[in-house]
């Protein structure tokens, strides 16, 4: 998971385009836009994170950094 890639997706893509990219990756297809990552799993992680962050920003009226902290906190909890 690379934060600069997630940030770039949040800044350049809409929620709808990210959801479409997530679906394409899940179906082992190529998304309509380039998603950086070493493999499909990392690409999917970047897209999923961007979707979470955009939703959090929209639902809670927060800025990117706050939403990113919320996402990374959830990741840490799921790993431990």
UniProtKB/TrEMBL annotation:
Q: InterPro entries, from UniProt?
A: DUF6952 (IPR053810)
Write down what this protein is called: DinB family protein
């Amino acid at each position: 998971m690379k934060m600069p890639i997630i940030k770039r997706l949040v800044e350049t893509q809409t929620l709808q385009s990210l959801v479409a990219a997530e679906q394409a990756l899940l179906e082992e297809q190529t998304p309509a836009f380039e998603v950086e990552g070493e493999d499909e799993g990392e690409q999917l992680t970047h897209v999923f994170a961007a979707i979470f962050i955009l939703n959090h920003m929209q639902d809670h009226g927060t800025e990117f950094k706050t939403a990113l902290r919320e996402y990374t906190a959830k990741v840490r909890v799921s790993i431990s």
